[in-house]
Design a protein that fits this description.
- By secondary structure, the protein is mostly helical.
- Helix content is 84%, strand content 0%.
- The protein has one domain.
- The protein is globular, with a radius of gyration of 21 Å.
- The longest helix has 29 residues.
Length: 327
């Protein structure tokens, strides 16, 4: 048991910071910080402010959307509680990666006096909806950017590397172990697997509330659109706030910015502290590898973007934890 706990602790709390710190060391090892300061001075701070406002609007829309799902389950959380649950999620993820979603379910379970498992299921539905949106956006963007993507893949030998990873014996072994575990969860009479099935059933009820709610589906879809339009608009405000990236967009068009947004969004799936490290690396791959931007300028842009996002997350997190949860 101790070994399992230690392994879980390593995976949850040690590996993500290693990824974050490792990527940051790699990215910034030769960085001239005077370039970052000069880049910051050249920024349009009105557009940077709009970037932050767009992010907050997306968070508000996310809180409103999740509230619709919880109401479909018969819960009636206050809007302020919903908003703080979203703000707190980002703040917790900044310190403890992947724990933010657990924290917001625990927080909402406390303020609504409801079972954690059902709320967790609604959160899963919430995140799956975002996964579907970013998947569809990625497919459409990659289709339109196919020529540039194909050239980049050929130059970097990307296809061969992906094939080598997928065909790795470790990947195949991992899939096999996962398959065996799923079979045991479904059929085994052992107590631990029975408890897992009970938890999954309650979680499934929270998930299916998204599809069985009698009203609010139109508003739910509208809020989903607002969330992602807000994040995308914020990215473009950020890109246009920095002269080198603004010039890159002027010469390469809207698709350049959209592709950078998609790369950054996909990088958030990498376990790290608030996406710090993977986000900069992914955006640099797009801006430098595909569109030929100067690496120093691209890293300066990514650094400024992450710095402002992190400051916003900290500020909203301080507000969240300054207000006690009540019910």
């Amino acid at each position: 048991m101790t070994q399992k706990i230690n392994l879980r602790t390593i995976l949850q709390y040690i590996v993500p910071p290693i990824i974050t710190v490792g990527l940051c060391i790699f990215l910034y090892r030769d960085m001239d910080w005077t370039e970052v300061m000069n880049g910051l001075k050249s920024c349009n701070f009105l557009l940077l402010s709009l970037f932050l406002i767009c992010n907050v609007i997306s968070m508000i829309a996310r809180a409103m959307r999740w509230r619709i799902q919880l109401r479909a389950m018969g819960l009636s959380p206050r809007f302020g509680e919903m908003l703080r649950s979203i703000f707190g999620t980002y703040a917790v993820n900044l310190i403890f990666p992947r724990l933010g979603e657990i924290w917001r379910c625990t927080y909402m379970s406390k303020v609504t006096s409801s079972p954690f498992s059902g709320i967790f299921g609604s959160m899963i539905a919430d995140r799956l909806a975002d996964t579907l949106v970013i998947f569809l956006m990625s497919v459409l963007t990659f289709m339109f950017a196919a020529p540039a993507m194909a050239e980049f893949a050929a130059e970097s030998d990307l296809a061969a590397r992906l094939t080598a990873i997928i065909s790795s014996p470790w990947v195949i072994f991992g899939v096999f172990i996962l398959f065996i575990f799923c079979i045991l969860c479904i059929y085994s009479p052992a107590g631990i697997f029975v408890r897992i099935r009970q938890f999954v059933n309650k979680m499934w009820q929270g998930f299916t509330a998204l599809f069985t709610m009698e009203r609010g589906q139109g508003l739910w879809l509208l809020l989903t659109a607002i969330i992602w339009v807000g994040y995308c608009a914020g990215m473009f405000c950020s890109l246009y706030s920095f002269p080198p990236t603004a010039a890159l967009l002027a010469s390469n068009g809207f698709l350049c910015g959209l592709l950078a947004f998609i790369f950054g969004s996909l990088a958030m799936a990498v376990p790290s502290n608030g996406g710090i490290g993977p986000w900069q690396a992914a955006v640099m791959i797009c801006l430098c590898g595909i569109y030929g931007m100067d690496p120093t300028a691209a890293l300066t842009f990514a650094t400024i973007n992450v710095a402002f996002s992190t400051l916003l997350t900290i500020a909203l997190g301080l507000y969240t934890f300054a207000v006690p949860a009540r019910r």
